[in-house]
Amino acid sequence: MTREDTRFAQLTLLAGAGLILLALPFVTTYNDFLTEGAIRLGVAGPLQAVGPVEARMVVTLLRLIGVHAGASGSDLVVWDFTGRPTNLFISWNCIGWQSLILFGVSLISGLRGGHTLESRAQVLCIGLAGTMLLNLLRVAAVAVIAATVGVGPAILFHDYGGTILFVGFLFAFWTFAQRWILPSQPSQAE
Predict the structure, then answer these.
(1) To 10 degrees, what angle do helices 117-148 and 97-110 make?
(2) How confident is the model at residue 38 (pLDDT cuts 50, 70, 90)?
(3) Which H, E and C letters describe the chain, residue by residue?
(4) How many CA atoms lie within 13 A of 171 on its CB side?
(5) Positive or negative CA dihedral for 52, 87, 137, 39?
(6) Per-residue pLDDT, 68
(7) How many other C-beta atoms can be found within 10 angstroms of the C-beta atom of residue 89?
(8) 94-124 residue pLDDT tens
């Protein structure tokens, strides 16, 4: 990857992050309304099918760190340390599809240049796995925050912290990919 390609990828990611952060108040204000409307219209059905699978994976992560949790369909229950349950619902809008789209957009600028098919495939696989793992960790963090601190702070983290966390992940991922997976190509002038 040439120095210009690296700069272009970083600037594109920075511009995308800026746009997401600017739109964040609008998105979070109407998120619940839009989610309920989409569920009632049946538009969210295919994406909602991911909710139960994600809930079970989050429960597995929570149990690995010693948090008592259970799932039934898209419903998630997390018990705090006193035994008080907190019920959460993983809707289609919470599964992380937005981060997959943002990762896909970052691939357009990040994979510019004359990279091998093997290095592109490695970036794609590692990035998808990282994005999916980060989404699971984000939902698990929301559940732990809801059970220990309260639902209000969990919603705040869900709406704002998750986005900021993912943008930070993208910067770290592309720094890693550009440094170790997508080596610089010698320039034509050399």
Answers:
(1) 150
(2) low
(3) CCHHHHHHHHHHHHHHHHHHHHHHHHHHHHHHHHHHHHHHHCCCHHHHCHHHHHHHHHHHHHHHCCCCEEEECCEEEEECCCCCEEEEECCHHHCCHHHHHHHHHHHHHHCCCCCCHHHHHHHHHHHHHHHHHHHHHHHHHHHHHHHHCCHHHHHHHHHHHHHHHHHHHHHHHHHHHHHHHCCCCCCCCC
(4) 12
(5) positive
(6) 95
(7) 11
(8) 888 778 878 998 899 888 888 899 999 999 9
- Give the whole-angstrom CA distance, residue 10 versus residue 87: 40
Q: Which two tokens stand for residue 55?
A: 């809930």
**Helix 162-176 vs helix 117-148: crossing angle, to nearest 10:** 150
* Residue 88 identity: L
Place of tokens 């992050």: 17
- Compute the distance between CA of residue 28 and CA of residue 155 in angstroms, rounded to an integer: 10
CA distance 87 to 178: 41
Sheet architecture: strand order including 85-89: 69-72, 75-79, 85-89
What tokens does 1 get? 């990857």
Two tokens, residue 108: 């357009």
Token digits of residue 16:
């995308």
Tokens for 40, please give them.
């009632």
